[in-house]
Automatic annotation (TrEMBL):
The keyword Transferase does not apply. Keywords: ATP-binding, Nucleotide-binding, Transport. It comes from Cuneatibacter caecimuris. Belongs to the ABC transporter superfamily. This is ABC-2 type transport system ATP-binding protein. GO terms for molecular function: ATP binding; ATP hydrolysis activity. It comes from the Bacteria. InterPro entries: AAA+_ATPase (IPR003593), ABC_transporter-like_ATP-bd (IPR003439), ABC_transporter_ATP-binding (IPR050763), P-loop_NTPase (IPR027417). Gene3D superfamilies: P-loop containing nucleotide triphosphate hydrolases. Residues 5-217 form the ABC transporter domain. CDD domains: ABC_DR_subfamily_A (cd03230).
Length: 271
């Protein structure tokens, strides 16, 4: 197994406030990895330590590859034009402007608009383009789709998937569980300064939830059940419907979504 990032016993305090109390997690090469946690859990702090933007107090961080960091909003001068910003970043990084990035992210369409006139989604596209200027191997995205409309999110998700297809490693912090569930290979959950879970969404589901949600639609309407023994419950229900001569039209069984499991585990469940 090759790792893009390895974090061992990472510690960081702001004054007396101990935010990271010894984080341990690893990001594999070529995966999309999400750092999850409630507001103030320390996700941005952890990412900034890895990115080298923030000094940390203890532990070890190993990064194998070139990093690209997506800027936070309002990080550029108000009147700079998108292509000017790209040229400036390329110059700072002593690299040629990569026209494929400009085309892929539709930056030409924004050429005439100043930074302050761009929408949130357009700014995010530009920020991602700037992060890709140096042709990084590892890309950091802090809440990449916050504030975007559905179309903007779908478009950015498409870009993130393309980066993965190109073999890039992507590390993101997000509050959007649907986004994480659809994009990420693995996740880590941060709570009270430590990582309380690292693995796939399915592994989190198996650890947190033994309950299945069962939804049955019959000719009489919809009924919902929860069960830890889905086979037994279904058998019982189907016999009952047959005895009552009720037709079953549809059956759905699931183990809940990441949002429910995230709430469970951050509230102390699944330990
Ligand atoms: N520069 C700073 N000085 C003092 N405290 C800080 C500083 N930056 C962050 N903190 C505190 O550290 C804690 C973690 O903040 P951080 O921004 O890393 O959390 P987060 O998980 O990214 O939160 P969010 O989901 O709200 O973005 C918070 O309590 C925050 O108030």
């Amino acid at each position: 197994m090759r790792y893009a990032v390895q974090v061992e016993n990472l510690k960081k305090s702001y004054g007396n406030h101990e935010v990271l109390k010894g984080l341990n997690f690893s990001v594999r090469e070529g995966e999309i990895f999400a750092l999850l946690g409630v507001n103030g859990a320390g996700k941005t702090t952890a990412l900034e330590c890895i990115e080298g933007l923030l000094k940390y107090d203890g532990g070890k961080i190993t990064v194998s590859g070139k990093m690209g960091i997506q800027l936070q909003s309002s990080s550029l001068p108000e009147h700079i034009k998108p292509l000017e910003a790209i040229k400036l970043f390329a110059k700072w990084n002593k690299t040629a402007v990569d026209s494929s990035v400009i085309t892929a992210l539709g930056i030409e369409e924004l050429a005439k608009t100043s930074y302050c006139g761009l929408s949130t989604g357009q700014k995010r596209r530009l920020h991602l383009a700037l992060a890709l200027i140096t042709r990084p191997d590892i890309i950091f995205l802090d809440e990449p789709t916050a504030g975007l409309d559905v179309e903007g999110r779908i478009s950015l998700h498409g870009q993130i998937r393309k980066l993965k297809e190109q073999g890039k490693t992507i590390i993101l912090a997000s509050h959007d569980m649907a986004e994480v569930e659809s994009l990420c290979s693995r996740i880590a959950v941060l709570r009270e300064g430590i990582i309380i879970f690292e693995g796939t969404v399915d592994e989190l589901t198996a650890r947190v939830s033994k309950r299945y949600n069962i939804r049955i639609i019959t000719e009489k309407g919809e009924e919902n059940y929860e069960s830890e023994d889905v086979g037994e419950t279904l058998l019982h229900l189907l016999w009952r419907y047959r005895a009552d001569n009720i037709s079953v039209l549809d059956i759905r069984v699931d183990r809940g979504n990441l949002e429910q499991h995230f709430i469970d585990i951050t509230n102390g469940g699944g330990k």
